[in-house]
Each structure stands twice: as C-alpha cells, then as structure tokens.
Specification:
Elements (H helix, E strand, L loop, with lengths): L1 H11 L14 H54 L2 E4 L7 E5 L5 E9 L2 E9 L8 E4 L6 E10 L8 E12 L3 E12 L4
Antiparallel strand pairs: 1-2, 2-3, 3-4, 4-5, 6-7, 7-8
Length: 190
C-alpha cells in the first residue's frame, strides 16, 4: 500500500521539473527562513499589542469624558436657575450661587493624592456646620483642571458663567492624555 502511494506521488509530480542536484533544502536555508519568519511575527505582535494599548486608553478617555460631561450638565442645570452667582474675578476653581430653594450651592475642585474630582456642597446658610458635600464625578475619573468665571453682560442682562474642566487619563503612567471641556451657561433667574 505504501508503495502504491509512492507511485501515485511520483506520477503526480512527474511533470514537474526538478533538478536532481536540488532535491531538498539545506540547514542554512531553513535557519534563514525561520529567522525571517520570526522577525515578521515579532513586528506584527508588537503592532497588535500597541493597538490594544491605544484602544484601552481610548476607552478610558471616552468613559472619563462622558462622566465629566454629565457633571457639567448637572452644574449648568442648577446654575441656569440660580441667583447671586459668584466666582473669583479672574476665574477660580469654584462657583457659588443660591438655588431656587434658597440653599447656597458651591461646586469646587477637590484634589487628594494627585487625583481630582468635582464636588458639590450644599449649605442652608453661610457657615453651615453640617453642609451636604458629595462628589459629582466618579472616583476613577481624574479631574485635572476646573475653572469657573462669571461674566457680566454689562447691559443689565443675565450673568454668563464659563465652565472649563480638564480630564486626565493615564495608562500605567506610560502615557497621559488631557482633554478639556468648556461650556457657557446663562442664568435665567437674574
């Protein structure tokens, strides 16, 4: 049976032109082809790993930006109906106003261990000993920059508040990306 298979194999390749001197490959040719193959595989694996790294960083950035966008939306909804809006003259890391319920609301940047987050403080009166303080950004989101600036329209119109928020995303401290979001809100109550 093995003999029959060998004969069929010879008949199949009988039309092919083989040189009798070159019936196989040498050890050097095999090692060379193996080396070229190894280099190509190494390059393709490195590119694939870099693509996965960049995708993970991009997903973190998208999640952080989405979280901060929600926080900005919450701030703008409250500022829009607030009165007595105050910030530092040149802009600062906090904005304070009085909401329709008469409570003093302050949004500010809190930084602990190089990790920042935006916090909302609610007081019944100035100097309230038990204010309600809660973060409005997630713990895994690093807010690197927060600035609020109240701009007077000058013509008796409503105060406009410019909110600037910076988000920092890092992957194993090898690569850091900063993204900045900005919005302008006008108070309807004043």
């Amino acid at each position: 049976m093995i003999f029959e298979i060998k004969e069929k194999f010879k008949k199949f390749f009988s039309g092919a032109k083989f040189s009798k001197d070159l019936e196989g490959s040498t050890l050097i040719e095999l090692l060379l082809s193996l080396g070229v193959f190894s280099v190509l595989i190494s390059i393709s694996i490195a590119g694939f790993v870099q693509t996965l790294f960049n995708q993970r960083l991009l997903l973190k950035l998208m999640a952080a930006t989405d979280n901060v966008s929600s926080a900005i939306e919450q701030m703008t909804r409250e500022i829009r109906v607030g009165t007595n809006i105050e910030t530092l003259p040149e802009g600062g890391s906090s904005v304070q106003f009085i909401n329709p319920d008469g409570k003093i609301i302050t949004y500010f940047l809190e930084v602990n261990n190089n990790q920042g987050r935006i916090v909302r403080k609610e007081e019944d009166e100035v100097g309230d000993p038990t204010p309600l303080i809660r973060p409005i950004t997630a713990d895994n989101v690093n807010v690197s920059y927060f600035q609020a600036q109240a701009l007077d329209s000058g013509f008796g119109g409503p105060v406009r508040v410019v909110l600037n928020v910076g988000v920092r995303v890092s992957e194993r401290k090898a690569k850091e990306i900063d993204t900045y979001l900005q919005t302008v809100v006008s108070s309807r109550a004043e």
